Amino acid sequence: MEHQLPPDGDWRTWVILGGRGAGKTRAGSEWIRQMVEGSRPKMPGRCARVALVGETLDQAREVMVFGESGILACAPPDRRPHWSATRRQLTWPNGAMAQIYSASDPESLRGPQFDCAWVDELAKWKKPQEAWDMLQFALRLGDSPQQLVTTTPRNVATLKDILARDNTRSTHASTDANRANLAKSFLQDVRAKYAGTRLARQELDGVLLEQEEGALLAGANLAAIGDSPQDNWEIFQFQSADLVAPGRYGLSGRLRGQLGSDAIMPAQWPAGSYFVLLDGAPQQIELPASGRNVVQYFQIGPAARPYSDYSYRKLSAAFAGNGLRPYAPVHLVEKRDGADLEFSWIRRARLDGASWDLAEIPLSETQELYQVKIFSGANLLRQEQVHQTQWRYSAAMQALDGAHGPLELQVAQLSESFGPGLFRKHGFTI
């Protein structure tokens, strides 16, 4: 399978991220054979001193050496290495040797030296950074020593650091990629039981979940998406990004419509929309009230370079000052009192409204004021301003407006500095 084939090019570390049963162990065993075996059984291969590092000695021996997809199971009879239990060592007919080590004892890697290494299930090691560091100091033989990491991913700093390095290449596969070699009932049972869970994403899909839910709710992985106009952007967060093709990622675990952009977000952004990964919450640029909706001219580039530098780009744009725009109200509820209709909603705060300890969220405006509109199709039947988070549409008003059939209520908070914010809409029928 493609994920089991070594990457092309010059690299030091190859990481295979895969779900349970995706064929990671088989890939590791075949790669070690490729590195140590020559064209004939007693001909030297590229490598002669190999480190096999598992979480414990038992796991290294039972999985990497004696496992159903381990080195001994994959070796043909004339190239099968000899196992020495006392030395914890494999020796090939050509003299190449592989020693097993426990990542739980990083100091055991101090002293030996190798020209290649296979590291298994690094993401569940108890001392990942210490063991990895010791292995790097030992991987010093030959012209270009290389190492393979096979692991089911977890949100572990050491693994993420390895993946981020320029000399690392990675391949990926889900459990389903190796379904031909797995019990059919196994896949059916685990998919049925764990469908849609973080555990399934990690253990079956082999996805590195970048953010825990707590970190996500604290503002991690913030991004913007829009289709080019300055005022048409949605702010959202995502929990993980999966590489699905070169330069293309699938985002999952999304929290949409953040920072008040929920009222303008479509059900689905069209193809070709712009995606911007943010390094923090967007900040309002310094723009006087007189500058709103007036074309401004900007030069954008690295702050450390002069404006004349080739890297600077010119931009002309008119901004509405949406950082001042009130958020759309939420939880718009309709209640009937005879022929009258009572509508209520909850306001939101642009500023300092995230605390759960407040009895009432800050107003963020000089006064509490809302604009209420009633539409019949595209026709505006009524517009009013109210100072509280409720409004009664009486039978007399309905008769005066000629209101009947399907209608729509729209409510927005008003700001002295901006005007009406985004409208929350609610359909109802008279």
Could you give a short description of this structure?
This protein has 430 residues and is an alpha+beta fold. The chain is 17% helix and 31% strand.
Features:
eight-stranded mixed beta sheet; 9 helices; 430 residues; alpha+beta; five-stranded antiparallel beta sheet
The description of the largest β-sheet is: 8 strands, mixed
| Helical percentage | 10-25%
Give the number of helices. Answer: 9
Average residue-wise pLDDT: 89
Strand line-up of the largest beta sheet: 3-4-5-2-6-7-1-8
Low-confidence stretches: none
Shape: elongated
Strands, count: 24
C-alpha termini separation: 62 Å
Structural class: alpha+beta
Strand content: 25-35%
Alpha-carbon Rg, integer: 31 Å
Protein described:
The protein is α+β, with helices and mostly antiparallel strands. The chain is about 15% helix and about 30% strand. It contains nine helices and 24 strands. The strands form six sheets. Strands 3-4-5-2-6-7-1-8 form an eight-stranded mixed sheet, sandwiched between helices. Strands 19, 20, 22, 23 and 24 form a five-stranded antiparallel sheet that branches. The longest helix is centred in the first third of the chain and has 13 residues. The N and C termini lie far apart (about 60 Å).
Question: Layout of SSEs?
Answer:
Layout: E1 13-18, H1 24-36, E2 49-54, H2 57-65, H3 71-74, E3 82-84, E4 89-91, E5 97-102, E6 116-120, H4 128-138, E7 146-151, H5 157-164, E8 168-173, H6 184-194, H7 198-203, H8 213-217, E9 222-226, E10 233-237, E11 240-245, E12 248-252, E13 255-258, E14 274-277, E15 295-300, E16 313-318, E17 330-337, E18 340-346, E19 370-376, E20 379-386, E21 390-393, H9 395-401, E22 406-415, E23 419-420, E24 424-429
Parallel strand pairs: 1-7, 1-8, 2-5, 2-6, 6-7
Antiparallel strand pairs: 3-4, 4-5, 9-10, 9-14, 10-13, 11-12, 15-16, 17-18, 18-21, 19-20, 19-22, 22-23, 22-24
